[in-house]
Structure formats: C-alpha cells, structure tokens
Specification:
Radius of gyration: 17 Å
Order of helices and strands: HEEEEHEHEHEHEHE
Number of helices: 6
Structural class: alpha/beta
Largest sheet: 7 strands, mixed
Shape: globular
Mean pLDDT: 84
Oligomer: single chain
Strand order of the largest sheet: 1-2-7-6-3-8-9
Strand content: 15-25%
Length: about 200
C-alpha cells in the first residue's frame, strides 16, 4: 500500500484544537463561551447576563434564528442549489451577508429585562465569522447558541435540544422568530409562540 491512512483523531481533541486556534486568532476575545463535547456551544458577550438560578419564574427569553431572520443569505444560496450541496462554502460566505434591518430593529425594542438568545444551526467552526458579523452590524444579543462541530442532526432536533437546555438553565422562552416552517412547528409544539419570517430558503413563500 503506497499510502498510510491517517490516525483517527477523537472528536474531543479536535474540538480542543479548534477552540485553541480560535482563541489564538482573537476570535473569542469579546465573549465568554462554554464548550462541552456533543453539546451546542454557548457564547455570551462580555458583561454577560445569566438568569438567577434561584428565580422561580426564570428569565423571559426571546429565541431568534440568524440565517433568513437577521442575516440575508440569498447571495450564498447557490451553494445549496445543485445536486451536491456545498455546506462548507455556504457557511464560509456568511461574513458577506446583509443585515435584515426590520428584524434587527425589532430586537432593539425588546424590554431590557428580556434575554435575546440567538439560536442558530450554524456550526461553531464559523463562530468567528458569526461573532464578527454581529459586532459589525450592531445586532443586540445576550446569548448565542451554535451547533457543535460534528453534530449532523436536523435543525429541529438540534434546536429542540438547545431549547431544553435553556429551560434547565432557568431561561424562560416566551417567543421565537424563525424562517423555517419545521422549526416554527417545533416551537409551537413546545407551547412557545413563534413569528414566521418567510425567507424563501425552505420552500416558504
């Protein structure tokens, strides 16, 4: 055999390397973050706001998607239109997204005692692109939750898992904003009202 297969690197080691690389690049300078293997990755801006664990009511939380709700991803949809979907190129181009101003301005009107949690199915390997984009466009947010690298579950499954984590950590989701009808149904099945933004990315009109 003229080639030697590369040794398989455990996912834990891979994620640790990714975390260290992002730290060395300054990606995570402006945030606190929580990496746990096989779990969604959580980020808080400096000066983070976390719910009081002793509160009986929990922190009222608005759960907001990014792609198609805050970020205009139409310029990169062509990566997904062919027979073979190029998800890496699709996500790497996210830094060029325009801001969907109406929804961004809506977040600015949310009461100060409410937490704005951005829940996205984007993988955390583009956290630098995502955090930079949020900073450059002045988007208001208190918590960012991203899919962990290596998690290939459907968006609905990943977001259902994150929703359960929010509740355990004393966040109380009171409203969601989504562009994927499947996620709208998931939120409504959890008794959380959801505003549907018809982005057109998921066959919606």
């Amino acid at each position: 055999m003229w080639w030697r297969p590369l040794p398989k690197v455990p996912r834990r080691a891979t994620r640790t390397r990714q975390r260290e690389r992002r730290r060395s690049l300054g990606t995570l300078d402006r945030v606190s973050y929580r990496f746990v293997d096989d779990e969604p990755t959580w980020y808080w801006p400096n000066g983070e706001r976390r719910p009081d664990p002793d509160s009986d009511d929990g922190a009222p939380t608005l759960v907001v998607d990014i792609d198609g709700v805050l970020a205009d991803a139409r310029h990169r949809q062509h990566y997904l239109n062919g027979r073979w979907q190029d998800w890496d190129s699709f996500f790497l181009a996210a830094g060029g997204d325009g801001l969907l101003v109406e929804q961004a301005r809506l977040l600015e009107t949310v009461a100060e005692d409410h937490v704005i949690a951005l829940l996205t199915a984007r993988s955390d390997w583009i956290d630098g692109i995502t955090l930079t984009w949020l900073h450059e466009h002045g988007v208001r947010w208190d918590l960012l939750i991203m899919r962990c690298s290596g998690d290939y579950r459907r968006s609905t499954q990943m977001k259902q898992h994150a929703l359960e984590q929010l509740k355990v950590r004393n966040y109380r989701p009171v409203l969601a904003i989504e562009d994927d009808p499947r996620n709208v149904t998931m939120f409504e099945n959890n008794d959380i009202p959801c505003i549907f933004i018809p982005s057109g990315y998921h066959g919606s009109t």
